[in-house]
Amino acid sequence: MLRKYALFVGVAAIGALVTSCGGDDDDTPTPTPTVTSTATPTPTPTSSTVLTLQDDFAPLSTNANYAFAFFTPDGGGAETFSGASRQEGLAAVGLELSPELASFRFVDQSSAVTFDDTELTAASATLRSYARRTEKLVMELPGAYVLRVSYESQADFTQGTTDGVLRGERTALFFTGVTTTDDITTNLTYTGSVEAFGGDPQTTLSNAITSPDTTFTINASDDSINGTIEIYREVAGSPQLVTTLTFQRTVNGTGAVTGGVLNDADAFTGVLTDSANNFAGNFAGSLAGPNREELFIIFSISGNENDDDDRRFVGSFIGRR
Predict the structure, then answer these.
(1) Given this model, what pLDDT does residue 15 score?
(2) What CA–CA distance (Å, rounded) separates 102 from 1?
(3) 255 has pLDDT over 50
């Protein structure tokens, strides 16, 4: 029970960040940890909006969200990982350019946070960012069909008996759905970058986790998702492999497919297991773009609670053909 309580505190604290910023004084539902041993609902685009950072847009997305937080004690000390979770539900983002207004609403927020032109810090075809005091909003469009939006905020927080500051980030992915109905007749290969966050609560430094670029393949023979994501932790200035996550088609004892295969909407879920490093979790994602030009994956893993292993990681991959 100690592990569950510690993890709940770390993740639930993310909910406190909403009421401390953005002028949102509403009561905010507390996020709860996502169980990582079973598959979660597939991401769904709820709008056919064309994604661009150079024109007005307002897309919605469902079940493509995750959140994480880091804690810094008062009076000095290193910022360390606090908690993380994949979050189900609806997220929304909007951009208006004349006059400039960017908005973002995560699944646990009753109203959107907004930023205007005076808070714009960067603008290009692939990145748009805003900042004010302890808040930041970043929109990343590495390709053309998958947009990653992250909102960062801070709040006073007591972790155990230690007072300090909790810095949390909510991330949602928005994407354009596949429209082609053609069968996949040749393997589809997607190369891109990974972002990963997490570690051992109150121990892992906030800047210690990295994950290299990688490649995923959709196998034409069975529509399965195939690839790996490696997560590293910096130790004494050198990267140390924490886990290698294998994404693949899985079946049960009777041979029935249990995950890792595209559904009729070109989306998927699956289970992750790394027994050697004591991790288990799940993933979900989708192909994106009219002709399956891009692929994204969201993943969440945690250590075995029976071994009192509090480690947890969340993150995402965005790749293009």
Answers:
(1) 45
(2) 41
(3) yes
Asked if 153 contacts 22 with a C-beta cutoff of 8 angstroms, the reply is yes
The string of pLDDT tens digits covering residues 125-149 is 999 999 999 999 999 999 999 999 9
State the Cα angle at 109 between 108 and 113, rounded to 5°: 140
Nearest in space to 143 (alpha carbons), one of 6, 44, 50: 50
Residue ranges of domains in the chain: 2-320
Please state, in angstroms and as integers, the Cα–Cα distance from residue 127 to each residue in 22, 143, 255, 277, following that order.
22, 11, 44, 35
- The Cα 257–Cα 260 span in angstroms is 8
Residues 109-138 as b/e (b if ≥16 CB within 10 A, e otherwise) read beebbbbeeebeeeeeeeebbbeeeebbbb
Quick one: which of 50, 86, 75 has its CA closest to 162?
A: 75
Helix or strand or coil: residue 23? coil
pLDDT, tens digit, 9 for 90 and up, residues 61-95: 999 999 999 999 998 899 999 999 999 999 999 99
Query: 3-state DSSP call for residue 37?
Result: coil
pLDDT in tens, 13-70: 454 444 344 434 343 333 333 333 344 578 988 666 678 999 999 999 999 999 999 9
H/E element, 224: strand 224-235
Three-class DSSP category at 119:
helix
